[in-house]
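Hey,

Quick one before I head out. I ran the complex with magnesium ion overnight. Inputs first:
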Amino acid sequence: MSYQVLARKWRPGDFSQVAGQEHVLKTLTNALDKQRLHHAYLFTGTRGTGKTTLARILAKCFNCEQGVSPTPCNVCGACTEINEGRHLDLFEIDAASRTKVEDTRELLENVQFAPARARFKVYLIDEVHMLSTHSFNALLKTLEEPPEHVKFLFATTDPQKLPVTILSRCLQFHLRNLSPKTIVKYLEPVLEKERIDCESAALWQIASAAAGSMRDALTLLDQAISYCQGSIRAEAVVEMLGIPPRQQVFALLRAMAAGGLGDVLEASEKLAGQIPDYAQILDSLLSTLHRLAIAQAHPEAVDNHAGDRQEIVKLAGEFNAEDLQLFYQIGNRGREELFLPGDARAAFEMLLLRMLVFSPMPMAAPEEIKSRKTESKNDIKNDNKNNSESESSSSLENESASGADASPPPDAEPNAATNQPAAGGNPLVATFEQDPNVQTLMRNFDGRVIPESVGAIGGMGGDAGDSRGSQ
Ligand SMILES: Nc1ncnc2c1ncn2[C@@H]1O[C@H](COP(=O)(O)OP(=O)(O)OP(=O)(O)O)[C@@H](O)[C@H]1O
Ligand SMILES: [Mg+2]
Ligand SMILES: [Zn+2]
């Protein structure tokens, strides 16, 4: 027998097998139990979250020979035929390839005829947003008052493109993206039944990479099975997905915590040597920054799916809370710069430099880094504690309120491990200052770059820059 891809093989046959989407299942089950059957249903949501799957199950609920119920038998003629895609009264139409009004008219001409065998004639129209305006108009009347024996099931990834006149005639169900946890829970028994050995960390990597789509998760699992040939290991999955190795991301963050530009650039270069995709590297950096921030706020809440919680909690102690917030914001807002024409490496390095230059924690001169690395983490923790206790707003806000320099003002509260003035003669800072954006800013701000003006560089929070510029 030919190989069937996992996503097709494991398509849920009834509501109990569907992962997540409880809000939809509850409504549908109640309605079917009470025999309150609407004539038009619309399923929306991102790719691979269960729209077509739910529509097909619903078609079985309507037409199962055992009667209308939320639990189709899956063995009768009607259920089997629907499962095999050959039921005479289930019309699956791909709207993307039948957009014209003539196609819709043809469909509507047939609507009035009674079903061949089943209780209902079910029209399942996929990607319904692709229909032309004329097609929608032709559909309106029938959709409002269809014959008793007709049910319409629509599915789309793009409900915004549907006319409100169509929306208001349908029961609408918005399917949610599935969380990595839900995906892992669904995939574990699949792996067991398929007799595939898979490390838990590998499965979590796949579930995260699927970005909410169960189809993507199953496809990635197929890919991992071929890639690994045998048991699926986390390392191999990381390689397959092109995710930067965690340890190297940690090394980059450690260098950032120490504030040494040379080390930061070296760690970044090492990462790029392995994964030449800067967007992936930035994504890993951002997700780790997020975990570090969580680790500072509530260490127990850090997930340990990759077995690295301890390491995360330890690394979190090397940052102050403002830095984590600032780095995350700069990285997130600057993401699009990686896709602008030009050198992605330069864009990525500029982002890293921007994080450090605008950090309330001053950059270290090379000789400074060693001593900083060995400095007691308690100091940093105490600093964090003091900051959160004594400052209702961040030091960044305080600085910006007083219009202070990004380099630590002489009278600023020391909130970092050292209070070394910024960038004394560091050649990398000189490079930063040569960036045309920075030069414009320095001109605009009278030679002083203030922390919030970072927004102006990344095209973010333009207000701050504007208001200052007009002063
Ligand atoms: N909620 C879910 N629970 C279990 N499996 C799911 C779920 N959603 C999707 N799948 C799996 O993904 C496959 C594709 O799902 P489905 O065809 O329902 O997605 P869709 O939402 O219609 O996607 P598209 O927008 O791309 O058409 C199914 O065969 C099934 O294996
Ligand atoms: Mg579909
Ligand atoms: Zn049945």
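The pocket of magnesium ion (ligand 2) is lined by residues 51-52, 126, 155 (CB under 6 Å).

Talk tomorrow,
K.
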